Each structure stands twice: as structure tokens, then as C-alpha cells.
Amino acid sequence: MLTPPELGAWRPRLTVSVIIAAYGHQDKLDLTLAALAGQSYPSHLLEVIVIDDGTAPPLRLPEIAPERTRLLRTEEGSRGRANARNVGLEVADGDVVHWLDADMVTHHDEVEAHMRWHHLAGYLVVMGYVRYVEEDWPAPAEVYAAVSAGAGEKLFDLEASEPHQWIVDLAERTDGLRAAKDTAYRVHVTNAASVNARLLRETGPLQTELVLGEDTELGYRLAQHGAAFVLEPQARAGTSAAP
Length: 243
Hints:
It is a single chain. With about 240 residues, this protein is an alpha/beta fold. Helices cover about 30% and strands about 20% of the residues. It has seven helices and nine strands, in the order βαββαββαβαβαβααβ. Strands 1, 2, 3, 4, 5, 6, 7, 8 and 9 form a nine-stranded mixed β-sheet that branches. Helix 1 packs parallel to helix 4. The radius of gyration is 17 Å and the shape is globular. The chain starts with 15 loop residues before the first strand and ends with a strand.
């Protein structure tokens, strides 16, 4: 049985590429990058790749963002969420790929909570927990300050927010995936999941012909290549998107 170290009580060594497919909503992307700039995971081990999937006018990188952040753009006529993520995957050089939606506000140790598992084994897929927030978020500078200070939960009213109920129900039905058996792959939802990069490349990229369910299909193929799936309650993020 794998047991991850306590947050803040270990020394990371693996690199991680956070891949964000984005279309429109510059304001939300600004918050996502501000929160990633405030992560506890060492900045020299973290890169962020944002792929603009054809926004007009094009998206831009804001002032507050992780040191190693780059912005790419999909080619004309080659669009879609799966394709955009594959564009990021092609250039990612991290030991781990962390899929993240462009409207997620991650807590201070969200990336660290994922990565402590990947340091234990090279066959893991880790899924975090997301809260859906209806209230307005503060400005990027305030988000960065709160996340950097480990106070991300103070950015919104926790009691008024809603969980990703499907993930919560799945965890309850399967004892945190321990009893999920051959259905555990369904937890691979690319709004807040991470995958060992070598395993991912052996499995193959996301299927671009799928409009929906491309993350579940990839999860199934990852399972066929020997992946084990982990739910990590301490990998937390909030989003204004509807559940």
C-alpha cells in the first residue's frame, strides 16, 4: 500500500507540466494563473502551458503567472478541447502532466498534493477535488496573495459552494476507489487530474474525434496500460463553472 508524505514535509524532485486548454474568458484564466503562481510546489519544477483554442482577440499571459509559463495557439481548422490539450502534451517536458481547466483556482498545495503521489510510483493517475462557486472571485492580485499564504479557502464561502458531486458519490460507493476494481478509470476527469508523463505517452494522446468523454476514454486506455487511480481530497480547487 502506498502512503504519501505529509504536505510540506518532503523534498520534491520530479517536474510537472500543467496543461491548460483555454477558449475565451481572459478574466478566468488570469485567476487560474495567479493561483498557480502561489503554489507550494517549487517553481523551478513547475511549468505551465496554456493553449489558446482560437480565441478572438487572442488570449494573453497576465502579469501574475508562474515563472515558467508559455502560451501556444491551436492551428486554424484544428480545434477542440482534446486537440488543444494534445498540442500542450507535444511540447510538455515534465515528468508528470497535470491537466487543469482554464477556470480553476487552485489552493496553495494543490500541485504538491498531486505530486507527492507521483514520487511514489510511475503508474499513477491522481484526481483532485473541485468546488463550484457562484459568488464573484476577487482580483488576481488578491487570489495570488491568499493562495500564497495558504488561505485559498477564504476566497469563497465554502458552505455555499457545491462539490463535484459525481466524484463525491463515486468515492463513497467505492471506498475512495479501493473497491472500484475495473471501473476506477472513470475518475480520470481532465479538469483537475494528473498522469505520469511516460505512462501517458505510452498510452497515446486524447482522441480528438470525441466531442465529449475524451477524458474517460483516455482513462480506460490508461487502465489498460497498467495505471492505478487515486482520489486526493487535499488537491483542492474552486471554479465558477457550473457542475
